[in-house]
Each structure stands twice: as C-alpha cells, then as structure tokens.
Design a protein that fits this description.
Blueprint lengths: L2 H15 L2 H10 L1 H16 L2 H20 L2 E7 L5 E9 L4 H9 L6 E12 L1 H16 L3 E4 L1 H7 L1 H8 L11
Parallel strand pairs: 2-3, 3-4
Antiparallel strand pairs: 1-2
C-alpha cells in the first residue's frame, strides 16, 4: 500500500473526527473546553496522536486543579457597618492572600459573621488565618460570629482527633 494512500486515509479519518457541532456546543458550555479541544486537535496535527492526547489530558487536569483550588469571597455590609462574609470553594494556601485581603478590608469594631458552610476544603494556613482574625478583631472591640463546629470539621486535625475518640468542647477561640 502506498504511503500517500495511508496518509490520505488518516487525513480523512481525522477530518471526520472534527465535529463542528461539538465545538459549538462546547463553546456554549465553557471556553476552557473549546481551548482544550483545539489544543488537543492542533497538537495531534502538528506532532502525533499520543502527544495530542497527553496535551489535552494535561490541560484537563490543570483545569480541574484550578477549579478545585478556587475560593470565592463575598462581603456584604449593612447600613450599620456590620458585615456578612461568605466563603465558597476551597480555602488553600494559594487563596490566602484573597482571604486575608477580604478580612483586612472590614471596618473595625462592628459585627462580622463569617459563613464557611460553602467551603469544601480548608487547609491549616487558612484555618489559622480565620482564627487569628477572630482573635484580633475581637481585641479591637468587634464581634466575630463563626461556625466554629463547621471550622473544626473542615480541619483534618480535628477529624483525626474525632476518629481517635477525643472530643473538643471549645466553643470559641481563646
């Protein structure tokens, strides 16, 4: 079989694999998906199938890591200066600057409610930052409301203590 004939068959199959309707539906879903699709396609054409699949897989893993490491912080302040701070996503050391900036921007000496029920993960650095903020804010005359039990369950250290049979009766940070 001539090499040119094999190349023509591969090109034909490749063209059939590119479905413009799929690209349009991916575009409605997310730009990331289209980007991954196009990078995979271009890498397959420019190099080879294995390299293209690896590039697409690497971008997909990168996208998942980004989405899992994202922290969303929303601050709502009422007319009296009291604030409701809502956290959603994953509070990791990567999001510590965002968390700290939101907390440092709050007016001192007011009521602050920290809602962490939207967190799916909280690492030790962010937990310490929340506890330290509560301590300092209350020393400066403010009042912090935090779901301490939820904070404890998000902490791996606390889960390990609970599994070992220890209990923590602390209702607030000293």
């Amino acid at each position: 079989i001539p090499t040119a004939a094999l190349a023509a068959i591969l090109v034909y199959i490749g063209v059939k694999l590119v479905d413009l309707k799929v690209i349009a539906s991916l575009r409605q879903f997310s730009r990331w998906e289209v980007s991954i699709y196009l990078v995979t396609l271009c890498t397959i054409v420019a190099f080879d199938l294995l390299t293209g699949v690896i590039a697409g897989l690497a971008l997909s893993v990168f996208r998942v890591i980004l989405s899992l490491a994202h922290l969303d912080v929303r601050v709502d302040t009422d007319s009296y200066g009291n604030s409701q701070v809502t956290f959603r996503g994953a509070a990791t050391f990567l999001s510590l600057p965002k968390l700290s900036a939101a907390l440092e921007g709050l007016e001192r000496g007011k009521e602050v409610s920290l809602h962490i029920d939207g967190l799916m993960y909280l690492d030790h650095a962010c937990k310490e930052s929340l506890e330290e903020f509560a301590r300092l804010y209350e020393r400066q005359g403010g009042n912090v409301h935090l779901e301490w039990q939820r904070l404890a369950t998000l902490s791996r250290e606390k889960r390990l203590k609970l599994h070992a049979g220890e209990s923590d009766h602390r209702s607030e940070v000293a």
